[in-house]
Amino acid sequence: MQLSQRITHLTGGGSDGWDVFYKARRMVAEGVPVVELTIGEHDIRTDPVILEAMDRAALSGHTGYAMVPGIKSLRENVAARIEARTGVPTTFENILITPGGQSALFAAHMAACDQGDTALYLDPYYATYPGVLRGVGAIPRAIQTRAEDAFQPRAEDIAENAQGAKSLLINTPNNPTGTVYSRETLEGVARVCEEHDLWLISDEVYDTQIWEGEHISPRALPGMAERTLVVGSMSKSHAMTGSRVGWICGPKDAIEHLINLATHTTYGVAGFIQDAADFALNQGSALEEKIAEPFRRRRLLAMDILDAQNVVKPIPAQGAMYIMLDMRATGLSGEDFANQLLDTHKIAVMPGESFGQAAAGHIRVAMTIDDDRFAQALRTLCEFAADLANNRASAA
């Protein structure tokens, strides 16, 4: 029997650029000690107070079918959080609770795109983006950003690719680059969306991890609330990655149709998980700041180490749990550098090429191990890069 092209073409064929990651995981499975600075998984797990709330909810019987749109108190809590952060009037009717941010990304594109529509996204990108677009039957079209712009997208580049498109997917704070889009950038994005009648799908799962500047949700810009679908999640803000609870915030009529989609696909999120998320949001910003603090601290450690050398050049690390490093002075691609670093020093990082072509020659470093090991690994990385750059200069 033949499978559908939608599923067999999900990844686009060929390497997905994650070979270094899989290689590192094989080494770990074989007992080789590897320092993993690859994926965005908190090294400190879900706070025990959240797990206790989850346990209470499950033991009290909230283990049956939950309301498909999400329990009302959680929807109201998410809406209140968004309104407080953006100033945009938001009610529970603007919120659909989803099984994580990934599910929300898929559903948002199902709402925005028909089969064969062109869907825009920015390069570098989170690894699943192109597959999400193919999965809903859209035609992915990448728009490259530039390292010299700190990967802030240019409105004119988006406009050049917008003819005939239906949607644009953005992510700020950005994974993999750590860039926080400026107001000027987002106003340019909004202008193009209005001029070309695009849905804007805004992935804001890192909105609590801001180290420089401010997080601006494009939904808050004039004229954008009715054409923006915001994706949020408890994964990064509350270290609830495995709990799979996120949301879409959008116009009421769009949410009503997305509830219909959820009824025919996910059928909602487990009630005891939602109760735990509701509890976590009720703890306010103090808990969110506690979760973000290790990455804030490690980012400062990284800046001190990087400032002490001149081979590895960081992209300004303004947000999220990653640092993007320019390795081109070594003469290697990001993938080649990552492979040699893993083979030589047993340190695993993600090549920039894993996230598209705009970050070729770069690597992404996740700040997801304890401070001392992180600092030592980054120093070793810089020393290794300096040796490669010196060898290259000697051979010239």
The major pleated sheet works out as: 7 strands, mixed
Oligomer: single chain
Order of helices and strands: HHEHHEHEHEHEHEEHEHHHEEHEEH
CATH homologous superfamily of the largest domain - what is it?
Type I PLP-dependent aspartate aminotransferase-like (Major domain)
CATH fold node name of the largest domain: Aspartate Aminotransferase, domain 2
Provide a descriptive summary of the structure in words.
The protein folds into 2 domains: 5-45 and 286-395, Aspartate Aminotransferase, domain 1, CATH 3.90.1150.10; 64-283, Type I PLP-dependent aspartate aminotransferase-like (Major domain) (Aspartate Aminotransferase, domain 2). The chain contains 14 helices and 12 strands. It has a 7-stranded mixed β-sheet, sandwiched between helices. Strands 1-11-12-10-9 form a 5-stranded mixed β-sheet, with helices on both faces. α8 (183-195) links the parallel β5 (165-171) and β6 (199-203). The longest helix has 25 residues, at 371-395. It has helices spanning 5-8, 19-29, 48-59, 72-86, 100-112, 129-135, 155-161, 183-195, 234-237, 252-264, 271-282, 285-307, 334-345, 371-395; strands spanning 35-37, 95-98, 118-123, 139-144, 165-171, 199-203, 228-233, 246-249, 313-314, 322-326, 347-351, 362-366. The protein is globular and about 65 Å long. The mean pLDDT is 96. It is α/β, with parallel strands linked by helices. α7 (155-161) runs parallel beside α8.
